[in-house]
Amino acid sequence: MRSLFAIAxxxxxxxTCSTTGxxxxxxxxxxxxxxxxxxxPPGAAPMSFQGLNxxxxxxxxxxxxxxxxxxxxxxxxxxxxxxxxxxxxxxGEVDLHGGLFRNDERAAYLxxxxxxxxxxxxxxxxRDKDTKLDKIYANYAIGVLDKGYAEYFLRKEHPxxxxxxxxxxxxxxxxxxxxxxxxxxxxxxxxxxEVGNLGHSNKLIVKTILYTQFLHAATAxxxxxxxxxxxxxxxxxxxxxxxxxxERWFVTEAEETHWLRDTILILAILLSGVFVFFLYDSWxxxxxxxxxxEDE
Length: 296
Known about the structure:
Elements: H1 2-34, E1 36-40, E2 43-44, E3 48-50, E4 56-57, H2 59-71, E5 75-79, H3 82-90, E6 96-100, H4 104-107, E7 110-112, E8 117-126, H5 133-139, E9 141-145, H6 149-157, E10 162-166, H7 169-177, E11 183-187, H8 188-197, E12 204-220, H9 224-235, H10 239-249, H11 253-295
Parallel strand pairs: 1-5, 1-6, 9-10, 9-11
Antiparallel strand pairs: 2-3, 3-4, 6-12, 7-12, 8-11, 8-12
Helix pairs in contact: 2-9, 7-8
């Protein structure tokens, strides 16, 4: 009797494992058939934004298009203000967040993929309002993205900071130009791009780099199947493919370094040429004077 009971338990366990495996396979196949919906904020160029015809554009969009090529899974893009993007993923309204930083608060309701891009965030201030860093934190209104990582970071590291949370980066840039805030904090290329769109990029300076973080994709908590699928696709990106995606939207440090190196080299050659010319001219004048003295 006991042996029959044991056999029944083993059979039930095997059936359960088999069923789980089939369900897992169906999950993968379902995504391949139906695709995944990815949400991003709309006004976050060059990371994610809507083109003139409303089409999704930007670095994050290109990353996911390449991921789709690797996995064979269709991707569909949706845009929403930043705070809504987090809620939409948490509530299962969309499958994935296209790219965000990881922190403990978000980890309570999101699962994250492997990192796929490093990004620097900075504190930027109006050139005519520049002052000591401690005075900026204590006295200046600093625009941040509502529920963004910069807000989380500054509240934790600089509780004295006077933060002004806004829904979009475009609103932060407009507030700076209108004089409603004196500084802003967030992803350096995105903030600079939006302020530049308003014709004020030359009036802004990078006061300090706040942190360097990695972008991750994210799903609602517990969707291990999709996270594994995301990681699998990212793992198939070659180094060259990563570089090409970045070069389309960013000026890389290597390019900046080569530009500076080449400029210095050209200036050195020109200065050397001028120096040689003056040496030759000086020698020629001296030789002519010596010949004139000999004739006398």
